[in-house]
Amino acid sequence: MTQLFSGKEVSTSVYESLVPRIQALKSKGITPGLAAILVGEDPASKVYVRSKTRKFTSLDLFTETIRLDAEISQNELVLEIRNVNADDRFHGILVQLPLPKHIDEDKIIKVIDPVKDVDGFHPENVGYLTVGNPRFIPCTPKGIMRILSHYDVDLSGKHVVIIGRSNIVGRPVSILTSLKKSFSNATTTICHSGTKDIRFFTKQADIIIVAMGVPNFLDKSYIKPGVVLIDVGINRVEDDSERGYTLVGDIDRKSVTDIASGLTPVPGGVGPMTIAMLVENTVEAAALQSGISLD
């Protein structure tokens, strides 16, 4: 029987653990605040920002969404970010990706104040993560690690295979799984579009993390019995339902059920954890900037 690893369950425990930390900050007159910068009308980005806003509001935290036209110039966007950098109401800054094609995402990320970079994408924060002393861990990889620890999946000595090498998920989670730390310390392999035979690696894996954006890519032919599967994909597949589509992951859930020992569902798996980790990173950023220890 395959155990479902519920991101909703884990995120609920995260929010509960954050309440006393938030109260400790508020007792000192500090309300953690996040600025979300949304450029254009990307549907998935709008859904994510709305979900983020609801959660921040429910926890009585401060958040503001700065909506900008898709035609904004790169220089204008840089000025917007610098204004938020200087605004003490905001302890965290989220520039929602993807950005319009005429804007250089790497340059924009570098403009964000590293101590407000709650996404963990600034090169300075990537460097801290790489040497094993992270300031802010990117939200989705951090959420994946929290799910694994919550369900007592110890990676030490295990073989982790990651499919996907993005700077948002694949690369950072490859570092996290291989750090010499508790519940980590795995041997980690990254597969990607240049990998000749992905099955060769996945059939050896004890844990597979799939972040490709390809609906139902990984089926039972890729896995061995007892593997743990983490599905990062959220894909819209058109159908005849009332809303006209179904959300599916990168893993063919029906195919792998009863072969895998554990699996994150889509929706309800990694997705809720991304928002939970954004909240946690923002609270930690508020403490860092205020010189307050929450430990």
Key terms:
Rossmann fold, 2 domains, alpha/beta, 295 residues
Could you outline the blueprint of secondary structure elements for this entry?
Layout: E1 3-4, H1 7-26, E2 33-39, H2 43-58, E3 62-68, H3 74-85, E4 92-95, H4 105-111, H5 123-130, H6 139-150, E5 159-163, H7 170-178, E6 187-191, H8 198-202, E7 207-210, E8 228-231, E9 235-238, E10 245-248, H9 253-256, E11 262-263, H10 270-290
Parallel strand pairs: 1-11, 2-3, 2-4, 5-6, 5-7, 7-8, 8-11
Antiparallel strand pairs: 9-10
Helix pairs in contact: 1-10, 2-10, 6-7, 6-10
The structural domain count equals 2
* CA-based shape: globular
Helix content class: 25-40%
CATH class of the largest domain: Alpha Beta
Share of β-strand residues? 15-25%
**Element-by-element helix/strand order:** EHEHEHEHHHEHEHEEEEHEH
The strands making up the biggest β-sheet line up spatially as 1-11-8-7-5-6
Q: Over all CA atoms, what is the radius of gyration?
A: 19 Å
Total E-strand runs: 11
CATH homologous superfamily designation of the largest domain: NAD(P)-binding Rossmann-like Domain
Q: For the record, give the distance between the C-alpha atoms at the N and C termini, rounded to a whole number.
A: 38 Å
- The low-confidence parts are none
Average pLDDT, to the nearest integer?
95
SS class = alpha/beta
How would you describe what is shown here?
The protein is α/β, with parallel strands linked by helices and 295 residues long. It has 2 domains: 27-118, Rossmann fold (3-Layer(aba) Sandwich); 139-272, Rossmann fold (3-Layer(aba) Sandwich). 39% of the residues lie in helices and 16% in strands. A 6-stranded parallel sheet has the order 1-11-8-7-5-6. The chain has a 3-stranded parallel sheet with strand order 3-2-4, with helices on both faces. The protein is globular and about 50 Å long.
